[in-house]
Amino acid sequence: MTFKTKWTIGIAIVTLALSACTADSSKPESNDAEQMDHSTMNHSNSGELPATLKNAEHPKFPIGSTAIITDGHMDGMKGAEATIVGAYNTTAYSISYTPTTGGAPVKNHKWVIHEELINPDNTPLAPGTKIKTSASHIAGMEDATVVIDTAVETTVYMVDYTDTATGENVKNHQWVTEEELTAK
């Protein structure tokens, strides 16, 4: 690789890093991906699951099938074709928290599942409940004290998809709820 090529790649990496740092994470999350900052979202995941998470017996979207993502938690997600990697029955929570790494509070983050909460009750938690999470979807989330905004008993899916904005292949994305998918 030539010096000029290395220099160009280095400039591109710095530009991307700086643009991620300037995003405004104080905006609440919503269905409009343009209002969200997931620049620190762990796009490609190992697929590691909480030990207590149970497979769904008869999911609407079986493993290996495809569906269209109808809700955009992140840029490039809405409208993407997803391949179902896993399906699990659980309670999904939208949460608000202040990152353990500092920075602006994150509001209405979708989704953390019941099995990613530290020492939760056996029943779904009520909105307003404060609890810690072991989820590490975004930098500063793991071990943060979160406030439950909403709770939905549903089937959640781990999916692979191609980001419609960047073309990046996203592997083992956690989580998309059944209500956020539609048949292809």
From TrEMBL:
<feature type="domain" description="DUF1541">
    <location>
        <begin position="64"/>
        <end position="114"/>
    </location>
</feature>
<feature type="domain" description="DUF1541">
    <location>
        <begin position="127"/>
        <end position="178"/>
    </location>
</feature>
<feature type="region of interest" description="Disordered">
    <location>
        <begin position="24"/>
        <end position="46"/>
    </location>
</feature>
<protein>
    <recommendedName>
        <fullName>DUF1541 domain-containing protein</fullName>
    </recommendedName>
</protein>
<dbReference type="InterPro" id="IPR011438">
    <property type="entry name" value="DUF1541"/>
</dbReference>
<feature type="signal peptide">
    <location>
        <begin position="1"/>
        <end position="22"/>
    </location>
</feature>
<keyword id="KW-0732">Signal</keyword>
<dbReference type="Pfam" id="PF07563">
    <property type="entry name" value="DUF1541"/>
</dbReference>
